[in-house]
Amino acid sequence: MATPTSPVSNIIRMLSKRKKKKSPTQSIKMLFEINDSEIPLKPCSVLQIRDYIVSDMLKEAYLNLLSLCLELQQQRAALGGGTSPMGLVNKEKDTIMLFETLRNKIADIVRSSSLPSSHNKELLVYVVTIILEEEKRQGEPGRMPGWREAWRDAVRDGVRDTLKKVHLDSREQNPSWLAVHLGLLGKAIVEDLERVKAELLSSYPEDFKVFDTYVSCHHEALGEHLKRLLEQVTEVKDYYALLEFIHCYPSEKIIGSFPFLSEEQRGLKLPEDFLNKIKNSLYHRLKEDFTAALENIIKIEREEVWRIKKTPDRTDDRFLTSKIHMDISQLIATYADTLRNVDENLGKSLLYFSLEEINTFLKRFEKEFSQNTCSLLTSDLLDSSLWVEYHITYMNSFNLLKEDMLCYSKSCSDQVEQLEKEVDGLTQRLSQTLIEHFKADIKPYINGMMTKKWLQTDEDFNEVIYRIESYSGYCKSMRNPSAQLFVNDVHYYIVKEYVSQLMMQKYSCKNTKKEDAAIKIKEQWNELKKLFEEMGSSFHWLYSVGYLLSDIIGMDNLKNIKDILNPLVSNYPDISEKQLSAILNFRGTGFGLEKRHVIKQFILLKRDAGNTNHEHSFFADMK
Q1: Rounded Cα gap, residues 129 and 375, in angstroms
Q2: Which residue segments constitute the domains of the chain, with CATH numbers given?
Q3: Is the pLDDT of residue 513 over 60?
Q4: In this predicted model, what pLDDT tens digit does every residue of 351-368 receive, in sequence order?
Q5: How confident is the model at residue 2 (pLDDT cuts 50, 70, 90)?
Q6: What torsion do the CA atoms of 30, 32, 35, 39 make, to the nearest 10 degrees?
Q7: Which residues pair with 313 in a beta bridge?
Q8: Would you place residue 142 in the very low, low, confident or very high pLDDT band (cuts 50, 70, 90)?
Q9: Which burial class, exposed, middle or buried, applies to 405 when counting CB atoms under 10 A from its CB (0-12, 13-18, 19+)?
Q10: Please, which residues have CB within 8 angstroms of residue 222's CB and are 6 or more apart in sequence?
Q11: What is the C-alpha to C-alpha distance for residues 9 and 14, in angstroms, rounded to an integer?
């Protein structure tokens, strides 16, 4: 049996025999060879060879294995193709078993050499020598193929072990568990490849492409590791951390710190379906989080505003305001715009979803708002005033939200258009709720007009004016277009109700009372006109009706009624004969010739006017 010799000693001895200095690569190539003279003439026992393998005495084990193979070849040749005896069959099985044991041992050595502080250079030299020798002897009977592939598998397994040892906190231990782990992972990969470059390259010949192999194994093992990590990811920030790491991996922060690698070698080459899985998981989680964030906005309003009756904030220009529109706009920018940087199509899909989800949010908000603030109306005057301010606050905020969403009109025209409709519907309902509250508040005083009491005192009218002035103050804190619509609605309602009282036949003026009534109507109409002008009503067409009716009521001689009826029918063509008759009854004109003359004039004017459509409806809206 050949005496074991140290590979390092062989290198020193070979270098000392040459006058010309050889490169390290040349020296290694000379070492990676088996001298046939070293092969024992008779192999030792199977058990002894196995012990050599187990004890890391690879040279002794391999030389004796080669001797065993030669002995088998000779014994087969001696049979001349005949049936092998049982002893030879068992010896062949033992040989295969020993080669498998040797390959497993080589895999253990290569795998452990991938771990820091586990590198045994001598053993690696023997590993490489055996692999090269087996590749040379491929084709001989009974030889095992795939030694180089087994070596690569062992490198990959070692790299896997390296990555598994990187510290990983649980999310309970550290909210930034994944970001921290990925940072450590990148550092471990760089350090491992630095070690390969500094310590392992000299143990292999160039054709093993050791560094390239370790890089590709890191890619493969890292891909598997990331897949396992993805199974634990549930939060948005962790999906982003994964994508950011994948994006940065080829850069100089990690694998790009080895500039001699080509761009193709630096690429991680993750399967497309894996990347899509991360992106789609992120997309669905963002959708869930966006919906939850909208729900949280309602919760905050309920707990921090409505429940404690917090007074709404005001802008510098005195408009009532909330942060809802800013919160929602920021949510969309944060979620959709950020995802667009990851995947443009997914970013656009999330934007579509976000805009559509706001429509659902508006319905939930309206329901919650109504349920949580209706009790304010049954409390004191301050609570009632707060109830009104809340309505104006959200009308303002949602109108601003509609303006904020216009920036998405180009890319999401249908969604923005639908959102505008939903916002308009909500603000109109909030406004209508205020109008209905205003109507209920003012109705008793409106009903007190055009009576004998009304003619004697301004008490009810003053109450009406007071309430209009109160809402006028509210309107100053309301943004357009809601403010304009609200003022117009209040103006229309007051004029319609005021005129309606004239036709309800609650009172009939006698003798000079009609002149007093006409004067009072004109005075009150002047006050209403001034108030609505100050409020900024754009319903200017309503101003003349009070004066025209006042003139009819106060007229001494109705023979000249045509001069008043003409502008009345022209401006308000929907006035009916029955309504004019009721107005005449209010002034005390009964069923005589005078009244018939007026009605005749009216009928002629209506006939001459024809059935032309008019821009505004007024008398037709009265019961």
Answers
A1: 90
A2: 1-165 (no CATH), 470-623 (1.10.357)
A3: yes
A4: 999 999 999 999 999 999
A5: very low
A6: 160
A7: 321
A8: low
A9: buried
A10: 163, 185, 189, 249, 268
A11: 9
